Recover the amino acids of this structure.
């Protein structure tokens, strides 16, 4: 068996498209952090009248699938309106790459989230966004759909690993249906925190494993 | 002619030496009988002789008696046997406390965790930023109910050597057994059980150009240890199962083929490689600059990720390793880099190079040049490190 990466992934890894910075970008966002692993930065140039993405570039501090998904996501987004670009899913990014190994699915999520965060940044700057709404269990569940189960490459909600979500005065407690010493327990805990902690009214996130 | 692929991951596996294979061959095709007692048939007696000769030679390299050397299937089994065997022998008699370090390789670390789930208590001795054990702290955490201290001779990732003589002396003074995992040191860094007070030593063949599936555990005479694998009465009734005679013969041959000149050569390459790699901006050495395995290089490059480095090097014809979370089977960053106080970022960009018998002098220059170019390429697309 050769590398678990498709030829398309390797092609984009070797020759990433739209790589670099836009110095006078209309919007930008960084997802991930050097402290917990991969990181993607996305820069946008948007036509103010049509809200069409004129140019998009990315930078990656990550593995091959991170670089490849950054590359594909910018190709998919270029020329689209902000509304259209928002609809791009990590599944589409993954499909466009000819599939990713399950353990690497989180890399495509990171890139898609990077693009969405950059669009949100544009909307915030240009007054296109509504009032901040209080976090609900639904919002947490929605975000958990962006945390991958590395065993199968599908999200935690779809693979029915989220046993309980409790939200009280900014304290979030999430119970995951896996044993505490599971191979991916630490990784899943970090990824959950990364997705839930940035919510404006969330103060602490506790992840418990019971399996 | 295609360019030679340059293999620099000799701490993971090594190429078998042909001379080892030649030594093993007769025990597959001619003397393939099981090692019988001295009253058995002649091919069985011959097999037994070969096994015992290999055992005696391997024991001698540790300054040990033949009956103190137990063959196993490799380092993972040896370390499991040491920790679980002692726990089973002393758990109800002396105590349930075990001391180890946070940077041990997985067989020791996970054996300790498995014992923890069965009611044993595990304490971790502090290590400094180079990976050396804090001897004062070790002295403090050994208790009257401590049954075993397990501290490696050399680290698998960063190559740091421990002062096993000093650790052994402390264990003796405190009256506790001492196991050392010498998987990565055996053959390259001598250890003599007549001088070093150590009770159990894990060794293996597959990292010194010997075969896979054979290793050993030195068990000092009189050490309390329970039978590890039930079966027959092989290996002094410590490990049941038919003996791996070709493996044992190959293991002894592999040890015999190591020379001081060869180890000195690896050390020269190591030092050249470290010097060259540290010329790259934002690079730092992981591990100890002096107390270090002769064939180990481990450097972290900021702003780049290890798996990407690895794949780019693979495309250029090099095999190396990394402590990056992206590369690990559990998506967790190297516990060794984190254990010596490094952060995720340092683990993320760490690259391990380990030399072996089949490397050439020009490999040092080749990998240094390739790494410099790959790191430069990846830094160009990294969002980090641009402002500085």
């Amino acid at each position: 068996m050769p590398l678990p990466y498709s030829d398309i992934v390797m092609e984009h890894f070797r020759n990433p498209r739209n790589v670099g910075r836009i110095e006078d970008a209309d919007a930008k966002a960084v997802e991930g952090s050097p402290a917990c692993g991969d990181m993607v930065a996305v820069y946008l140039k948007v036509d103010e009248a049509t809200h069409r993405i004129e140019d998009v570039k990315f930078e990656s501090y990550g593995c091959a699938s991170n670089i490849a998904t950054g590359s594909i996501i910018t190709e998919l987004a270029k020329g689209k309106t902000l509304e259209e670009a928002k609809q791009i899913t990590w599944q589409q990014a993954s499909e466009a790459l000819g599939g990713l190994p399950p353990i690497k699915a989180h890399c495509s999520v990171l890139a898609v989230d990077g693009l969405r965060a950059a669009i949100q940044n544009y909307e915030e700057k240009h007054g296109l966004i509504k009032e901040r709404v209080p976090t609900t269990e639904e919002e947490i569940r929605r975000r958990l759909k962006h945390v991958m189960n590395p065993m199968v490459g599908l999200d935690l909600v779809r693979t029915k690993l989220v046993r309980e979500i409790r939200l009280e005065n900014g304290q979030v407690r999430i119970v995951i249906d896996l044993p505490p010493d599971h191979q991916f327990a630490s990784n899943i805990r970090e990824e959950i925190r990364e997705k839930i902690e940035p919510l404006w009214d969330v103060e602490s996130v506790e992840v418990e494993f019971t399996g | 002619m295609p360019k030679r692929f340059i293999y620099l991951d000799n701490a993971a596996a090594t190429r078998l030496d042909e001379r080892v294979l030649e030594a093993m061959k007769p025990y597959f095709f001619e003397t393939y009988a099981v090692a019988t007692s001295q009253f058995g048939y002649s091919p069985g007696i011959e097999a037994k002789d070969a096994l015992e000769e290999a055992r005696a030679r391997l024991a001698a390299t540790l300054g040990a008696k033949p009956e103190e050397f137990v063959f196993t299937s490799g380092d993972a089994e040896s370390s499991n046997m040491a920790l679980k065997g002692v726990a089973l022998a002393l758990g109800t008699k002396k105590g349930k406390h075990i001391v180890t370090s946070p940077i041990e390789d997985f067989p020791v670390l996970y054996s300790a965790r498995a014992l923890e789930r069965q009611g044993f208590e595990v304490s971790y001795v502090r290590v400094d930023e180079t990976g050396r054990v804090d001897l004062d702290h070790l002295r403090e955490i050994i208790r009257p109910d401590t049954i075993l201290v397990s501290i490696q001779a050399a680290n698998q990732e960063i190559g740091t050597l421990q002062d096993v003589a000093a650790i052994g002396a402390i264990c003796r003074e405190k009256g506790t057994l001492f196991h050392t995992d010498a998987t990565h040191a055996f053959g390259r860094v001598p250890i003599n059980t007549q001088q070093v007070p150590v009770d159990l030593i894990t060794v293996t063949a597959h990292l010194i150009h010997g075969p896979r599936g054979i290793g050993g555990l030195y068990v000092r005479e009189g050490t309390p240890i329970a039978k590890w694998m039930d079966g027959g009465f092989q290996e002094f009734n410590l490990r049941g199962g038919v003996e791996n005679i070709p493996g044992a013969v190959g293991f002894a041959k592999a040890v015999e083929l190591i020379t001081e000149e060869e180890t000195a050569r690896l050390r020269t390459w190591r030092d050249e490689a470290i010097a060259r790699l540290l010329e790259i901006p934002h690079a730092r050495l992981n591990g100890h600059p002096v107390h270090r395995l002769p064939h180990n290089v481990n450097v972290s490059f900021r702003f780049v990720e290890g798996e990407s480095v690895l794949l780019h090097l693979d495309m250029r014809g090099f095999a190396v390793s990394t402590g990056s979370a992206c590369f690990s089977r559990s998506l967790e960053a190297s516990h060794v880099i984190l254990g010596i106080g490094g952060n995720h970022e340092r683990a993320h960009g760490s690259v391990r190079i380990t030399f072996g018998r089949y490397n050439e002098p020009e490999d040092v220059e080749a990998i240094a040049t390739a790494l410099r170019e790959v790191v430069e390429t990846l830094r160009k697309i990294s969002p980090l490190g641009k402002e500085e």
In short: The first strand of chain B starts at residue 6 and ends at 7. The CA atoms of residues 273 and 364 of chain B lie 6 Å apart.
